[in-house]
């Protein structure tokens, strides 16, 4: 039996690699994601995003759509019960956990958040990011989404 296990493991790995198909396109990055919120007005006027994270609010020319913009990405905002189509299967406020990357050391991020009364849920803690080790701090937005601010500067807590 001991000799069969490595064979079965190898057989499974071969099957997985044979099932992997390279598509004729490549994903380059994330353009936007949708945050379902209780109130677009509260989310765009709240200091968690604007003052504390430096994320600005964009109002589209139609006037009925808003987004939070930073870098080359944005969070489109959908108000629960008034979502734009197409939408997620179960759009729910407070159901997202997202990680934002900064170059600022996390101890400075924490000092800033504390100065403005943001309750830090956890941090600084070491985690694994998409491209390597990160140091993170966690807190909640008004809809109870979990916001993680992290940096890749190893050893800088």
TrEMBL record:
<feature type="signal peptide">
    <location>
        <begin position="1"/>
        <end position="19"/>
    </location>
</feature>
<keyword id="KW-0732">Signal</keyword>
<dbReference type="InterPro" id="IPR050383">
    <property type="entry name" value="GlyoxalaseI/FosfomycinResist"/>
</dbReference>
<comment type="similarity">
    <text>Belongs to the glyoxalase I family.</text>
</comment>
<protein>
    <submittedName>
        <fullName>Glyoxalase domain containing 5</fullName>
    </submittedName>
</protein>
<dbReference type="InterPro" id="IPR037523">
    <property type="entry name" value="VOC_core"/>
</dbReference>
<dbReference type="InterPro" id="IPR029068">
    <property type="entry name" value="Glyas_Bleomycin-R_OHBP_Dase"/>
</dbReference>
<feature type="domain" description="VOC">
    <location>
        <begin position="29"/>
        <end position="152"/>
    </location>
</feature>
């Amino acid at each position: 039996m001991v000799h069969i296990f490595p064979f079965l493991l190898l057989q499974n790995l071969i099957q997985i690699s044979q099932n992997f198909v390279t598509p004729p396109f490549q994903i380059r990055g994330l353009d936007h994601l949708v945050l379902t919120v209780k109130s677009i007005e509260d989310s765009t006027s709240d200091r968690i995003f604007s003052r504390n994270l430096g994320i600005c609010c964009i109002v589209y020319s139609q006037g009925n759509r808003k987004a939070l913009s930073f870098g080359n990405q944005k969070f489109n905002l959908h108000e629960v019960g008034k979502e734009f189509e197409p939408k997620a299967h179960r759009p729910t406020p407070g159901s997202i956990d997202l990680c934002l990357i900064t170059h600022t050391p996390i101890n400075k991020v924490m000092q800033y958040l504390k100065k403005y009364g943001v309750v830090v849920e956890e941090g600084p803690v070491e985690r694994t990011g998409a491209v390597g080790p990160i140091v993170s701090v966690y807190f909640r937005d008004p809809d109870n989404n979990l916001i993680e601010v992290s940096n890749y500067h190893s050893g800088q807590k």
